[in-house]
Amino acid sequence: MAPRKRLLNLETMNQAVLDVKVPILGSVLARALEIQQEIDQGIVKPFKKLTKCHFGDQQAMGHKPRTFLRQVAALCTYPELLDTDNFAEDAKRRAREILKTLDNNSVGSYNPTYITQVLPRKIAKFIEQRDGGVPSDPKNIVVSGGMSKAVLNALALAADEESPLKTGFVVPVPYYPLYGDAIALFGATKVEYVLDEERGWAVNEENIRESIRAARQHCNPKVLCAINPGNPTGHVLSRDNMEVIIRVAAEENLLLFADEVYQENVFAPGVVFHSFKKVLFEMGPEYSERVQLVSIYSISKGISGECGLRSGYIEFVNVDQAVFNYFGILKSFDIPSVIAVLTLEVLVDPPQPGDTSYESFQAEAQNLLSTQLEKARLAEEIFNRAPGICCNPIQGALYAFPRIQIPERAISLAQGRGQAPDIFFCHLLLEETGIVLVDGTSFGQAKGTYHFRISLLHPLEELKSILEKIVEFHAKFLQEYS
Amino acid sequence: MAPRKRLLNLETMNQAVLDVKVPILGSVLARALEIQQEIDQGIVKPFKKLTKCHFGDQQAMGHKPRTFLRQVAALCTYPELLDTDNFAEDAKRRAREILKTLDNNSVGSYNPTYITQVLPRKIAKFIEQRDGGVPSDPKNIVVSGGMSKAVLNALALAADEESPLKTGFVVPVPYYPLYGDAIALFGATKVEYVLDEERGWAVNEENIRESIRAARQHCNPKVLCAINPGNPTGHVLSRDNMEVIIRVAAEENLLLFADEVYQENVFAPGVVFHSFKKVLFEMGPEYSERVQLVSIYSISKGISGECGLRSGYIEFVNVDQAVFNYFGILKSFDIPSVIAVLTLEVLVDPPQPGDTSYESFQAEAQNLLSTQLEKARLAEEIFNRAPGICCNPIQGALYAFPRIQIPERAISLAQGRGQAPDIFFCHLLLEETGIVLVDGTSFGQAKGTYHFRISLLHPLEELKSILEKIVEFHAKFLQEYS
């Protein structure tokens, strides 16, 4: 046989895939991984180890899992433990109840009935309670494994790859990079609405309408994304802002895609999370009967922070059953882990007053939220004290997203390297301090502004020292490049 | 606002998705689900409950999980249990080892290093041992959650949706329906090679070459799928047949996609599973250095049958690193559950002689395989004794796929209903007996032949009575419609 080029190569592979970026893995993280290898090889650096501030993985940073949740999961995994006395009574009771609803009492079965019926009924109750009684239909709830894939599956329904006019996905700037990846993957077009940093990342009504109007010249906008609480911004949308978004969705006939995975991570005094569904229904039937809404929830965030287990749910509102069925089909390739979804059950139906685990379950939540508040205050203080750094109040989620000044000379230098200026800054910081941030470019930012995202997950004292190092480095950077 | 049509409806949604079928959920299962509801409502049927023979979910049918695997999983989920004495010593030791390799010792972290480095190294050793020393590079191994999604991600790399000439996926007939779904989802074209039922589902070399040659007139064949052991057929490919497939892949420059998820479920005396990788390497460098191979493994099948946990791996051979990187990206939206993947570690690195759990771990495997053999023999016997039913020897996997005679009058009747004749048969059987099978049409079958797939998962005595009921029903059916 004559030697031939292998069939599958970069030129012959699916070209749509080539445009997709790894979530949260820009050049900074790629370099951090290289540095880790260099350290492992014994190469001397100005720091002993990397300081990872680039992800939202709470448990990797020392956050303890919720005891009741893990007890129930262990009992369901190895039911022989039900006969031992190493568990809270209510954990055993709950495990018995769950096992009873599983096919042949086993987490090792696919368990379609548990995943598509038993659990959605519990989730619907949870949603109704959260939303002050707004009804939730279990039929409209889909339990999934990791939510990144579920988000892609939901957005896939709206993408129209065959139409000559591309599908427009309207996203806030800054946005969580997954939405950019979805746009690339489905050959869609990104339509941006820039959040107003000066007004605490508020939605600018004129700006969002103008964006969509302009986009209609070259694409077909179909989906309007909102992320609340915001990632990377850490703001919580005001009720007014939510009404603006809903009105725009209604008037422009867009599917409202509400990324609400940080809904439990709201800690600023006086700030309350409203779900888009609740606000939608409170705006009356003109909206609640018409606007198509998709909302997502994840066990990876919230109080439990179970990133490694992989579960969450999507609620669909006003999405035709016929379309919705196809989501079920896409999702059917992506059956969630039963051990993961049963921990979702624990979270939507937690221990009640009087139950053995009630007090500790509540205390775990209170502790986490008060610690998150302390860390947010600390970050705001340290950043806002520094000349050339400016950080909005952080009300929720797990991050700070401060704006940083970058001197003209650094901007030119970065441009010479073909790098965005904030990426340039993050690389310099990484090489000198070992601190791994995510550059603002990965999330999008208003033209001429520069940011980074830092996860506020390290223990308080450690976080303080990290923040101070960043601020100190930035001061030196300002001086050196001015 | 004037009432407007909601944006997302069947006409506006992604049209590619409309062509996708639910895996293994044809009209027969859909009707079975309705019947279940009718029974729940108190409607009287000729049977008390459904007899589910349509899926490969071993644990749902009473198969016990592997003790060592579940012990390790429970210990890692709730490490406080390490201080109790409810576990085998080696389970504790293994759990401690695994926890040490996890980020912050937690299954609740994303654990990228464990998933992409630690575990692939163990899997590579397992593969080398399985293949008699053929080298395996951990860099070419990707650990995934459920393998359906992983298969779609791998096939997505090859699909070229932008080319006017559609991508051809060459699949055996019968094939596992997931491959048909992938073809629909990626707008590809199905190219069939019909297995020779008369020769125990052997590959017909002339037939496969001719199929591909003919397909080149209207599409661009890029992937050649082989399923070994066969689903739904239960045959194990002979070494000769594997060589044919490899030669065709080499000569026709196709990516060889080897679905080997039933590799441990081989029980017929004298029948041995060879991996495609092993055969490829034994055919010499002319093949082993050129043929691009993708092989998949799943914890849902094999001895453990852990369908509910969701894990497995893919090994890539000769796939350019550049392309392979993009698989990693697609996969990155689909992070597996850490509890699931650590059970994969247990399976590829099982207890060794001298370990406390060694004997019982081995015994569990032996028991399962000998039971599977008994069930296979029983199915062959009962089917082949029946006039108008014919069943090939079942050597592996979990199913029988007998050919059934359907009288002309039944064929016309079915056609009048717009139903394939085998679907017609399965519906009649379901309505009268409550037995849920999957029709041959769902898998594809040679023109003019009719089949069904039955899972051989019920306990032996129960299975015997099910098989007898089917045979009896078919005899009556032959009589009634002849």
Give the structure's gist in a few sentences.
Chain A has helices at residues 15-18, 27-40, 67-77, 89-101, 112-130, 147-158, 177-185, 205-215, 239-252, 276-282, 285-288, 321-332, 338-348, 358-385, 408-416, 421-433, 460-481, and strands at 51-52, 141-144, 166-173, 189-194, 219-227, 255-259, 293-298, 312-317, 389-390, 399-400, 403-404, 435-436, 438-439, 452-455. Chain A is of the alpha/beta class.
Summarize the structure in words.
The structure is a homodimer of 482-residue chains. Chain A is α/β, with parallel strands linked by helices. Chain A folds into two domains: 15-61 and 363-481, Aspartate Aminotransferase, domain 1 (Alpha-Beta Complex); 110-348, Type I PLP-dependent aspartate aminotransferase-like (Major domain) (Aspartate Aminotransferase, domain 2, 3-Layer(aba) Sandwich). Chain A is 44% helix and 12% strand. The first copy, chain A, has 17 helices and 14 strands. Chain A has helices spanning 15-18, 27-40, 67-77, 89-101, 112-130, 147-158, 177-185, 205-215, 239-252, 276-282, 285-288, 321-332, 338-348, 358-385, 408-416, 421-433, 460-481, and strands spanning 51-52, 141-144, 166-173, 189-194, 219-227, 255-259, 293-298, 312-317, 389-390, 399-400, 403-404, 435-436, 438-439, 452-455. Chain A has a seven-stranded mixed β-sheet, with helices on both faces. Chain A has a three-stranded antiparallel β-sheet with strand order 10-14-13. Chain A has a two-stranded parallel ribbon with strand order 1-12. In chain A, helix 15 crosses helix 16. Chain A starts with 14 loop residues before the first helix and ends with a helix. The mean pLDDT of chain A is 94.
